[in-house]
Amino acid sequence: MIVGICGGSGSGKTTLLMRLKNHFQDLNPCVFTMDNYYNPIDQQHIDANGEYNFDLPTALNEQQLTNDLASLKKGEEILVKEYHFNSPPDKHVLLTIAPSKLIIIEGLFLFHYKGVKKELDYSIFVDVEPKTQLDRRLYRDQETRGYSRESILYQWENHVSPCYENYLLPYQKEANFVFRNDSRADYDFEQLVNDIEQKINSRVLQ
């Protein structure tokens, strides 16, 4: 069973991924992040002001991502370079990802990439107030990536927000579950895992 998690930058996709991994640890789930498929910087789009835009579908190697997900579904191991922002390619660690009966994948373009979307058995859209997302991104990118506040705000206005409006939000209504990552997160998590457990059980009985 392949479960997909989509949501904007700073919405909490990775946190939800790990919560689900821990909850379903008896199944030893395979976790799979689309961040590991960013193309090299020399292949990234440059905007009108000369800034790299990493918030476009072309920023990732869609074909390799689709192929690797299909391989996992067939029960095959894959090798993926773990991506770290601002690290040169030769510093990325090579990961071996083993298949599992439960695969959880997260990323921005989960629905937009048709080859990925068609493989999903269950999809989740993480919904958060934009201000909360921006606050999280400001903290993360200043503390862990060394970006200036001005640079983060520029990216948010010119890259991140248009990405969300064009490539994420239009698909929200197609998700099996909208996860409200706010004061209702614990309640929604309980509902979510109950829903996924029912789906797993129904597949076992088929």
List key phrases describing it.
single chain; 206 residues; alpha/beta; Rossmann fold; two-stranded antiparallel ribbon; 6 helices; globular
Structure report:
By secondary structure, the chain is of the alpha/beta class. It has a single domain, classed as 3-Layer(aba) Sandwich (Rossmann fold), CATH 3.40.50. The protein has helices at 13-23, 62-73, 114-117, 130-143, 149-168, 185-205; strands at residues 2-7, 30-33, 45-46, 52-53, 78-81, 94-97, 103-106, 122-127, 177-180. A hairpin with a 5-residue loop joins strand 3 (45-46) and strand 4. Helix 4 (130-143) packs across helix 5 (149-168). The radius of gyration is 17 Å and the shape is globular.
